[in-house]
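Re: zinc ion structure - here you go.
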Amino acid sequence: MSYRLLPGGPVRTAVAAGLVIALATAAPHPAHAFTGGNHEDITRAALPWEPATLTAMADARDGAVNANDHGGYFLMGPLHCDNADYLAPSHARDYPRSRDEATTELLACIRTSVARFRSAVRAADGLVDARGRVRADQSALSTPCTWDEAPERAKCEVLEQLGRGWHQIQDFYAHSNWTDRPDPGPLGVTNPPGLARTGVAPFLDIRRYSTMSDADWTRDARERIPPELTTGCYSDLDSTGVKAADCTGRVAHNRDLNKDTDASRRSRTGDNFGRAVSGATAETTRQWDDFKAALLTAYPDHRRGEQMVCALVHDDPQASCP
Ligand SMILES: [Zn+2]
């Protein structure tokens, strides 16, 4: 459900050096269509949107939800919930990372989504005029949106902010042990415990966190992160700008934990792939429902929030949202 096809690893490592300044240049990444396809399938299943708008969000290559897998964004660990790996002493003696370090990386991932949510609420203001009429020029998708962080039609801006905020949340389900079951064998670095959860993660309450201070929501999230939660070590940049030289002794994304495709080892353990897809789909629906609710709350006058939602889900808002 994301990029991290095994053959992609060395490619990413090779281009990692120039990453921070490469953020804006967005050279197309070697195709990982299949895994981008999982983001697409999840997004399509989760959102009751009209076809052209849904494609703009979901498309395996060009959709907003896949924008974080292109260019320099691809190499930023928090944009994929990577490197929040941890095992308790009962599963691995002297694990090289602490629970607190792992939690810090997960919070960095959540933080990127909180920031995108706030930006999306702000950008939606441009969809509708002061009297609640949809602005046709700001809500048309007659030409494709570009996901380059530059100002453009309000609808494109909202889709970009939402897509860049949802990508890592979908990745969380593919990259963590939240929905997993482990192999029946002994637990350890190559067979981390699985939490077997079926509900959405309570520490991904992005709408609520978007209304709180950083100190307050991180305190809330910390309390809700289970001690046995882990994601995988990956050779990208962590939240402190450090790139792991390798993942020796750590739960490794590629080898041990990812469910980016249905062919990974962890995916083939029981129904782990299906469980991750189900979790990510339910989560995406939750995130969209929460965003709608945020617009209704933020823009109550002249039914502006309702009109914003209408403009977002319809392909021809001028006709559909009188
Ligand atoms: Zn990703």
